[in-house]
Design brief:
It is a single chain. By secondary structure, the protein is an alpha/beta fold. The longest helix has 25 residues, at 127-151. The protein is elongated, with a radius of gyration of 33 Å. The protein starts with 25 loop residues before the first helix and ends with a helix.
């Protein structure tokens, strides 16, 4: 055998060589990588690298400091990490500063639960002691969530996040509120708001979810007591008749003050031509009822009446001249012997009910709006237009509901009280109940307690949506709508969604009747109810909050301290309500973007402006995107963002909502422990986040397989490069296939850049 024959030909081949391991071992390896990044201080290196660049600011919507992170958090934070890393690589300074929402009812509720378990009464504990416990609770969960977010590989300023409960944050939030007060946009009003009896506070639309609820429904006669017209026979005919309303909230009947109809709907007078059934039937032969023609048959069916006939049409002019008696007026209850006017209202339809709408201005937004619209005319007619406070904060009737005082509408446990039944029995007694049933329908519930809410008239603090600010047509609503037009939305459907919300929303309710939050830092004159507008007082409040936090408002001698020597303390009341937490988070642009030099956007004359992006789930159109827009437009005239990006929600693998009861939840901590955070990150990067996504064990396994293929491909590429000498090869000298690959790589790079933009 020759020497050539003995040669090992494998030595002549450039076989792949690499130390890159075949197995990833992510659960063990990732913490080592994160520790190395921290040791190298990658975050500071990136900030040094980004000096003098234009900023691309992704402002973090603050998660709530309450419990471990869930899969929605993992999706959201990973998307943000992908954006900031991408924009940094594309030549921007893209600094990610995380933040937390720290005030509000969920934390307060947890502390109250601890109190109840110990037999303690919250109301007997000094308020600042209670607030201290809420602060400590939030601090604990901030630390927990910070560790969980860092384990996901999210790069950011974790050592210096923003917190809504930091003293300087609380001071700025109060300062923003005082700007609304100074500009005349803040007012105290009495309106029906969604009220949680369980939590004893007003709720905003963003705090509401809709669930199926079984309600009592009733059909009720309102006897006509006055009518008008030149035809005496027709007038007398109406005076023997009654209008009929339908409602799914019998408990609101004591608050009834009007009936609404619509002049575009056809109404007629109907006569019952059969005797009523002997048991539980309150319509008798000869009864005359005015109903919408489209609904008359349904009404009689629910009244268990088969024989009836239409007598004649009733014109809108006739209805406008009608006044009714309250259906409880004839009972010896006291307080219901007033006229019930009939009002023309655009909100009335003939889709369901009777064509007439029972109107209790203390228990519904439409009811309130039309009552206020017609108030001057009603006053001129001698009708008392005061809105009663029929239901107390604990859910029971007050003295403004004579005959029912003490009955509960909703109990403190969120269960249906005895108010409905009590009202129904009295309506039977009066002879004005003509139908009774049950209806399962979508009804507002508190998303925290999961219990039904009620509409309740109560004094609250509002910001005007339609008050003129600096010129004709300049209102908070028009400012917000103009700002929406100037904002880029991804996907574009988000623009229409937010616009429709702003177009139709009522005045902004700011107040909450709780303890853990930033107080509404205004003083009210005891005699005139005027708001004190004094910049010197405002400055004292701001300075005190910077040093001591919002607890300063509740400290002994606070009133005298803030009013100083310019005002007599006994002539002024301090507001006890706190701000809705949406105002807190809506103000983050003021104490984060405008006060941190590393985030403050610069608007340059050359057009090379810094860019601000808000990125959250699609539910934030009614939440953070919404409140941030209103707060900034009310104080600065523009939106705080240049672009809004929204993502969908994560569903279970079968498309159903993840829930504990279905045992179909996926917890990021479990995925990380078994597979590693990169598997979750790969799932986020590969999913269509514009829509709702799905996640489960099979999808996770698919991403594990994809990760393995990517890793093995990279391992092969690294091994193939082991023998490269590092010398560049001129493009003209490359083989045609390599030039094609470089061309395709360039095309892919351009596509990726366009996708990121």
């Amino acid at each position: 055998m020759t020497e050539t024959d003995k040669r090992d030909y494998s030595e002549t081949l450039n076989l792949p060589q690499t130390d890159f391991p075949m197995r990833a071992g992510l659960p063990k390896k990732e913490p080592e990588i994160l520790a190395r990044w921290e040791k190298l201080d990658i975050y500071r290196q990136l900030r040094e690298q980004g000096k003098d660049r234009n900023k691309f600011v992704l402002h973090d919507g603050p998660p709530y400091a309450n419990g471990n992170i869930h899969i929605g958090h993992a999706l959201n934070k990973t998307l943000k990490d992908i954006v900031t890393r991408s924009m940094q690589m594309m030549g921007y300074e893209s600094n990610y500063v995380p933040g937390w929402d720290c005030h509000g009812l969920p934390i307060e509720w947890k502390i109250e639960e601890q109190y109840r378990a110990k037999g303690k009464n919250k109301d007997e504990v000094p308020i600042n002691e209670f607030r201290k416990e809420c602060r400590e609770f939030a601090e604990h969960w901030i630390d927990v969530q910070r560790k969980e977010f860092k384990r996901l590989g999210i790069e950011g300023d974790w050592d210096n996040p923003y917190l809504t409960m930091r003293f300087d944050s609380e001071a700025t939030i109060a300062q923003e509120l005082m700007k609304f007060a100074m500009s005349g946009q803040l007012y105290r009003g009495s309106k029906p708001v969604m009220w949680s009896v369980v939590e004893k506070t007003a709720l905003a639309e963003a705090e509401i979810e809709y669930q199926d609820y079984k309600s009592d429904m009733i059909w009720v006669k309102f006897p006509i007591v006055t009518a008008g017209g030149s035809d005496e026979a027709a007038v007398n005919q109406l005076l023997d008749a009654a209008l009929v309303i339908w409602t799914t909230t019998p408990w609101t009947i004591p608050g009834n003050r009007a009936i609404c109809y619509a002049s575009r709907i056809a109404y007629s007078l109907y006569e019952v031509t059969q005797d009523g059934l002997p048991d539980d039937n309150w319509v008798q032969k000869g009864d005359l009822l005015v109903l919408a023609d489209a609904l008359a048959a349904d009404v009689f069916k629910n009244a268990r009446i088969e024989a009836f006939e239409r007598v004649r049409a009733v014109s809108p002019d006739e209805l406008a001249a009608v006044t009714c008696a309250h259906p409880l007026a004839e009972l010896d209850l006291g307080g219901y012997d007033f006229d019930v006017p009939v009002l023309d209202g655009d909100h009335v339809t003939d889709d369901a009910g009777t064509g007439f709408v029972h109107t209790a201005p203390g228990h519904g937004s439409d009811d309130f709006e039309i009552w206020m619209e017609k108030r001057a005319d009603l006053d001129a007619r001698g009708i008392n237009t005061a809105i009663p406070f029929t239901v107390a904060d604990a859910g029971f009737y007050t003295k403004d509901a004579p005959g029912f005082e003490g009955f509960e509408v909703i109990t403190h446990k969120g269960e249906k009280g005895k108010a409905n039944r009590a009202v129904i029995e009295k309506l039977k007694e009066s002879g004005n109940l003509i139908g009774l049933g049950r209806l399962t329908h979508s009804y507002p519930h508190s998303w925290r307690s999961k219990k039904p809410v009620i509409f309740r008239n109560t004094p609250q603090w509002f910001v005007y949506m339609d008050k003129t600010l600096s010129g004709d047509g300049d209102t908070l609503r028009t400012r917000a709508l103009n700002a929406i037009d100037a904002t880029r939305f991804v996907p574009g459907s988000g623009q229409n969604r937010l616009r429709s919300m702003i177009e139709n929303r009522p005045d902004w309710v700011l107040s909450r009747q709780r303890a853990w939050g930033v107080p509404i830092t205004v003083f009210i004159h005891k005699d005139t109810a005027e708001i004190l507008r004094d910049e010197t007082v405002n400055t004292r409040i701001f300075d005190a909050f910077c040093e001591e936090g919002a607890d300063a408002w509740y400290a002994d001698g606070a009133k005298e301290r803030f009013l100083g020597n310019d005002y007599a303390a006994e002539e002024w009341d301090m507001v006890a309500d706190i701000l809705d937490v949406w105002f807190d988070s809506g103000s983050t642009h003021a104490f984060v973007l405008e006060q941190r030099d590393d985030l403050k956007p610069v608007r340059r004359k050359d057009g090379g402006n810094d860019y601000v992006l808000y990125l959250e789930g699609s539910d934030q159109h009614r939440g953070w995107f919404h409140s941030s827009l209103l707060e900034s437009c009310g104080t600065r005239g523009t939106a705080p963002y240049d672009a809004v990006l929204t993502h969908g929600f994560t569903m279970a693998e079968d498309g159903r909502k993840m829930s504990k009861s279905l045992n179909n939840q996926v917890f990021p901590q479990d995925v990380i422990k078994q597979y590693g955070a990169d598997i979750l990150r790969l799932w986020v990067a590969s999913t269509d986040y514009w829509e709702d996504q799905r996640l489960g064990q099979e999808i996770i396994k698919t991403n594990v397989d994809s990760y393995r293929k990517l890793r093995n491909t990279l391992r092969w590429m690294l091994g193939s490069l082991a023998h490269a000498n590092g010398e560049d090869v001129a493009l003209a000298e490359m083989p045609e296939l390599e030039r094609l690959m470089l061309h395709r790589l360039t095309e892919l790079d351009q596509l990726d850049r366009k996708s990121v933009e």
